Structures are given as C-alpha cells and as structure tokens.
Amino acid sequence: MSAAIPTGGIWVVAQHERGVVHRGTLEVAAFAQDLASKTGATLSLVVVGGAEARGVADELSRIDVAGVLLATAENLAFYDPAPWTDILARAYDRYRPEILLFPHTYQTVDFMARLAQRVNGALIPEVIGFAGGSLGEVRWRRPILRGKMHAEVRVKQGALPLLASVQAGVTAADDLRAGRAAVETLALDGPVAAPSRRSVRIESSSSTASDLSSAPVVVAVGRGVGDPERLGPVRDLASVLGGELGASRPVVDAGWLPRELQIGSSGQTVAPRLYVAIGISGAIQHLVGMRGSRCVVAINKDSSAPIFQIARFGIVGDLHEVVPALTRALRQRRDSG
Ligand code: FAD
C-alpha cells in the first residue's frame, strides 16, 4: 500500500449524500488549501461511508491535496454518529492530523463534539476565517451573539488536535485548485462501532424541501410580499433564474412558506452565487444566514433598508411591479437566444 496520507497536517472530512459530494465539502477544501499554503502544512481529504464512498473518494482525488483517505465499512451505508465517530477516531489514531476541518452542517455538528471528546481535541464551530502563523498559532474567526460580533479564538498551547467546522460560503468552491491525488484505504483492525439507530431509508421532509445550502441561485422573499396569494411572481422569478425559493422568518412564521425554506440564524445558511432578496429588510438574524452569497440583489421600496448595505445591486421600488418586470425581461433575453 502506497503511503498517500501523510502524518499530521490538515484534514478535511468530506460530507456526501448517498455518493453526491456536498457543496460545502468543496468550499472547505478550498478554505483548507489556503490554510495549508499559508501554514506550510500538508492537506488530506477523508471520505467516510459505505460502498458509495469509493466513488466519492475517486471524485475528490481530482483536487490538489496530498492524498484521499477512504474510511469505509459495511455498516456505514447510512450516516450515524456512533460508527462515524469510531472510524474517524481510529483514522486519527493512525495518522494524527493536527487540524480536522468539516463543513458546518447538521450532520457534522451532530458528531463533531463526540469525536473531539474521543480524540481529546479542541472544538471550534462555525469558523468564518483565519489569520496567523503555524498550525497551533492560527487565530480562528467565528461569529458570536447571533452574528452581531466576531470573536478571534486560538487553541491553548499543546491543545491540538483542533476540530473546526467552517461556515458555508467562507471560501468559494470555484477557488478550489485541481490536482491528482492517490486514494488510500484505511486499514481496520476489527469491526466499526454499531450504529446507534437503524436507518431504513432517507426521505426529504416534504416535496418542497430543497438543499438551499448548496443551491447556486436563491430567490428569497420577505414580509414585504404582504400576502401569500402574491407569491406567484416570486416563484416565476426563481424559476426563470433556475433558482431555489427561500424566505425570511416572518414569512415562515405566518405559514406562507414551509419552515425548511427559512434562511437566517434560526434557519439555513446559504452561500449561492446569486441571492435575490425581495421585500426583506436585512435584519442581522437574516443576514447571518446569507451574507456569504457572492452577489446579492435587493428589491425593496425603502431605500434605507439595511439589506442595501450588503447588496451589490439594489432596486428601490414596489416588488409587485419590479419582480414581474424583471421576470419578463429575463424571459425575453432567454427566449431571444
Ligand atoms: P421586515 O423586517 O418586516 O421587512 C419587510 C421589508 O419589506 C421592509 O424592508 C419593507 O421596506 C419591504 N417592503 C414592504 N412592502 C414592500 C413592497 N411592496 N415592495 C418592496 N419592498 C417592500 N429572521 C430571519 O429572516 N431568519 C431567521 O433565521 C431569524 N431568526 C431569528 C431568531 C431570533 C432569536 C430572533 C429574535 C429573530 C429572528 N429573525 C429571523 C427575525 C428577524 O429579526 C427579522 O424580524 C426578520 O428577518 C424580518 O423579516 P423581513 O425582512 O421579511 O420583514
């Protein structure tokens, strides 16, 4: 077996859903490439899963990393914190990475703390940036007080390994450097811990459920729409842009759109290439869920709405006029070639 995975350095623990790489994995890999080049550390990717994980590992081997570690076993077909923690802890014991990075998702948040405890590591969730020198001295930036402030934190001397989850949109997946890495399979001495629950199948929570966190275009609607009967033109705009529909909390609280479409501190975090905010004021609890977006377009009748402070393009006007006009113009453009 060739030694693709170096000892120490940085690991990115990939997330995938039944063999499809989660977009956050690519963003964290890009983030980690930057960290590796600034600290001079090696970077490896780790893929955990059942039979489908082999394809994921092959796909990720086209990224510029030292190697891809495939940690696979029969009882890993469905995500479960017990075997995930166990196999990652055993991989850790074998290679002793100093930093383990994860996309900040429900899944990783579910097992990261257990893994930190198992490997006696430090834990920093929701990282949004870093600064500093060697791996042990890096200062990690993360939001506190529901995003009102940022804190810079550093692990105590000698407290590595560090496990950190990286918020969506911190680094664009487009920034990822391509390469060619070898895939190494983790040798296991003995069975992996049994799942703590029995998963039969995985279903979306509703027919409208979408993975907003990996959508390239999100069209989000706020209380300014005024009436659920008037959501049609917003849906039309989302459709012509090939985007997913999102919402601010009041829209969800009123029952106009389902809960899983809520974006913000108590909803999903999104980082699309294009975010269209329609009738959304731009409260901090909403902004923390979407400010990683590459290009924000805001439509609001109040020119002093805070959303305009983070928007690249702002349209001041009545959304009931602006949205249909925009949709018409985009359709015309699309239809004329
Ligand atoms: P509003 O603030 O009421 O803004 C409506 C906007 O529409 C206004 O700017 C208005 O000018 C504009 N408007 C009105 N009519 C028109 C028109 N005809 N044309 C154009 N523009 C128009 N919020 C979230 O979104 N997500 C969260 O996850 C979240 N979590 C929270 C957690 C906590 C603990 C708390 C306390 C609050 C949370 N909130 C969250 C709520 C948040 O504070 C705001 O109240 C909310 O984001 C406001 O939503 P909005 O922008 O849709 O509504």
Quick overview:
With 337 residues, this protein is α/β, with parallel strands linked by helices.
How many β-strands, per DSSP? 17
Helix content: 25-40%
Structural class: alpha/beta
pLDDT averaged residue by residue: 92
* Percent in strands: 15-25%
Shape by Cα distribution: elongated
Low-confidence segments: none
Number of helices: 9
The major β-sheet equals: 7 strands, parallel
Strand arrangement within the widest β-sheet reads 7-11-6-1-4-5-12
| Ligand species | flavin-adenine dinucleotide
Give the key terms.
single chain; 337 residues; seven-stranded parallel beta sheet; binds flavin-adenine dinucleotide
Give an overview in words.
With 337 residues, the protein is an alpha/beta fold. The protein has nine helices and 17 strands. The protein has helices at residues 23-39, 53-60, 81-95, 106-118, 232-240, 249-253, 284-287, 307-310, 319-335, and strands spanning 10-13, 16-17, 20-21, 43-49, 67-72, 99-103, 122-127, 129-131, 139-144, 149-153, 162-166, 182-185, 217-221, 244-247, 274-278, 295-300, 313-316. The strands form four sheets. A seven-stranded parallel sheet has the order 7-11-6-1-4-5-12, with helices on both faces. It starts with 9 loop residues before the first strand and ends with a helix. The structure holds flavin-adenine dinucleotide.
